[in-house]
Amino acid sequence: MPKIVGKLPSESTMVVNSTLTQSNGEAASAEALIVVSSLKKGYQVGRQTVWALAGVDLSIEAGEFVAAMGPSGSGKSTLLYLLGGLDRSTAGSIRVAGFEIEQLDENALAEYRRQTIGFIFQSFNLIPSLTAEQNVAYPLRFAGVSRSQRTQRARELLGLVGLGDRMQHRPTELSGGQQQRVAIARALINKPRIILADEPTGNLDSHSGREILALLGELNQQGHTVLMVTHDLRGTKHASRTIHLLDGRVVADELPE
Ligand SMILES: Nc1ncnc2c1ncn2[C@@H]1O[C@H](COP(=O)(O)OP(=O)(O)OP(=O)(O)O)[C@@H](O)[C@H]1O
Ligand SMILES: [Mg+2]
């Protein structure tokens, strides 16, 4: 299994962009890292509104590993997308480290995504024409980091996820589990505080799935806060908490037995 060798670089602190406004300076230090309040997301389909999220309340402390479960269509991906700043809500609020991300303009939201969030998808979403090393380094192209530094950091991270010997392989030359490890290395390249994973083991065989879950568990141990959508009960093993969604709401929130 891909043991993490060495230490992750220290976490970057939350970007304080000048356009950000701290919603409540007093409460910010005391409140959880992620605070979701009455969050709604509606889609207009013809004359009907489909409520993908119908009022979600959720707090996640820094350092938690939260597994999110629920039937298909219950709003899990929507919740992750909104938390990750990939989409906008219809109503409600999301505070991350005391900042209202709903109030960010497009540039500040892009900065938030880049600096604070590492996204891992079920289908890996790697760029087929790029090598593992280039895929991992890719997000740094927009961060004003020199090419040699980008490559160095990508290599470190690929080593970290156990792919030191596969850096020059393209996605089609890697197994599913290896591709997902490349995707995880890419998600870590900007040292995000928060990792959002949407069914990261959904396309993997059970052995690779276990490895990926263990890797996410280790990243959590190293200080990353993780929110992972999973259909797989094994996925909850590494989690410090499991939430259940149904019809766009959190209907259960439990600590492991
Ligand atoms: N672009 C869209 N337009 C209309 N409805 C949408 C859109 N995206 C999502 N929905 C609806 O919102 C609801 C929640 O979708 P979401 O993708 O968050 O579910 P999920 O819990 O991730 O499901 P799955 O386990 O199948 O991935 C679903 O009923 C879906 O049909
Ligand atoms: Mg989904």
Q: What does the radius of gyration come to?
A: 18 Å
Q: Tell me the major beta sheet.
A: 6 strands, mixed
Strand ordering within the main sheet: 6-7-8-3-9-10
Note the total helix count. Answer: 7
SSE layout and pairing:
Elements: H1 25-28, E1 34-45, E2 48-60, E3 65-69, H2 76-83, E4 91-96, E5 99-100, H3 106-116, E6 117-120, H4 132-137, H5 147-160, H6 176-188, E7 194-198, H7 206-221, E8 225-229, E9 241-246, E10 249-254
Helix pairs in contact: 5-6, 6-7
Description:
This protein is of the alpha/beta class and 257 residues long. The chain has a single domain (25-254), classed as P-loop containing nucleotide triphosphate hydrolases (Rossmann fold). It is built from seven helices and ten strands. It has helices at 25-28, 76-83, 106-116, 132-137, 147-160, 176-188, 206-221, and strands at 34-45, 48-60, 65-69, 91-96, 99-100, 117-120, 194-198, 225-229, 241-246, 249-254. The strands form two sheets. It has a six-stranded mixed sheet with strand order 6-7-8-3-9-10, with helices on both faces. Strands 2-1-4-5 form a four-stranded antiparallel sheet, with helices on one face. Helix 5 packs across helix 6 (176-188) and helix 6 runs parallel beside helix 7. Mean pLDDT is 88; it is low at 5-28. Bound molecules: adenosine-5'-triphosphate and magnesium ion (MG). Magnesium ion is lined by residues 76-77, 198.
